[in-house]
Amino acid sequence: MKKMKNPMTAVKAQMRKGVLEMCILSIIEKEEIYTSDILKKLKASELIVVEGTLYPLLTRLKNAGLLDYNWKESTSGPPRKYYTITAEGSSFLKDLKSSWKQLQKSVTQSMK
Amino acid sequence: MNGIKNINIGGYPFAIDMEAYFALEDYLDTIKVHFARSAGYQDIVDDIESRIAEIFKDKPNAMEVVSLAQVHEAIAIMGTPEEFGATANDEEDYDHIPKSEWVFGKKLMRDPEEKVLGGVCSGVSAYFGIEDPIWVRLGMAGLILGMGVGFGLYIVLWAVMPEAQTASDRLAMRGEDINVENISREMENGFEIFTESATKFGEKMTAFGDKFTNKK
Of A104, A66, A105, whose CA–CA distance to A86 is shortest? Predict the structure, then answer.
């Protein structure tokens, strides 16, 4: 079952992709959090459509030393990953946020 | 009439309908192929499997057998690799693993759809890319008749080679790429073969029945 490819979908997806990692870092910086809760927040703000998008990004951020995780035991099943942001991740996020603010300013300016 | 399998998804035990099991395995295979070149391959695949287990467990009837409908639902929630929003080519900052170290390759498996006895010869010829299994069969027959060696060899191969059951198994048996297109094609062929066997069986039974009615 193939979906009709709309070129605008690709453009929108590209836009989301650019900010997604920043939002993920920002969510995790607020508090230690389980993957399933990260997904809830991302879906609530409509940043992701399918859950599969999250996992390669989480792994990449972790391998870059920006995130870390602990295994937390669960009474109702196998242990789950509990993510935290690292010091490096925090400072990287700060950079990203100021980049983003700059970008917002530029876009608003160019649309005047 | 389907069987039920007891399996482990992401470290958690489940009873799953056979049909559902094959669909789930095929889906996980496309995921694995999609991330095969990524350095974080194992982590990503494990995480996705754990999440699927969570999705199944979150259902109110968590004690029951996982059905095909549930698998389709989980796939819709997780998304197909195309929907993830990043193709394998996009991921430039993933360390690239050379193809020789990829997880998949050709597997030596028995072919249950092309078999005379155990599917051993057809599996071997699929592995070597020989179109018609007859040559391997002749070779095997020669070995058996000639020195009796072939007989033991056949039994060993039969025991050791796993049967190619799922669509992705059949692709691996022939060394073809495991992707969504090939799997859909294989699944369609699978159903055709099943209906063919069912029709042949029906014809045999009818012929058998006819014999008796005619003799009266």
Answer: A66
CB contacts under 8 A, B 84-113 vs A, are 84-86, 91, 93-94
Per the CB < 8 A criterion, the answer to whether A79 and A72 are in contact is: yes
Instruction: Indicate whether this complex's ipTM tops 0.90.
Output: no
For B19-58, write each residue's pLDDT tens digit: 999 999 999 999 998 888 787 889 999 999 999 999 998 8
Per-residue model confidence (pLDDT) at position A66: 95
The alpha carbon dihedral of B140, B145, B149, B152 has a sign of positive
User: Cβ neighbours of residue B21 under 8 Å, at least 6 residues apart?
Assistant: B5, B7
> Residue B79 is nearest to which of A36, A52, A62, comparing CB atoms?
A52
Selecting from A35, A55, A63 the residue whose C-beta is nearest the C-beta of B39 gives A63
Strand A77-85 with A33-34, pairing: antiparallel
With an 8 Å Cβ cutoff, the interface of chain A facing chain B consists of 13, 16-17, 35-36, 49-53, 55-56, 58-60, 62-63, 76-78, 80-81
Strand partners, A77: A74
Given the structure tokens 């309908």, which residue do they identify?
Answer: B17
Token pair for B42: 């194992």
Q: Shortest CB distance from A56 goes to which of B12, B44, B80?
A: B44
Q: Thinking of the domain A28-110, which architecture would CATH place it in?
A: Orthogonal Bundle (1.10)
Residue A63 has pLDDT above 70, yes or no: yes
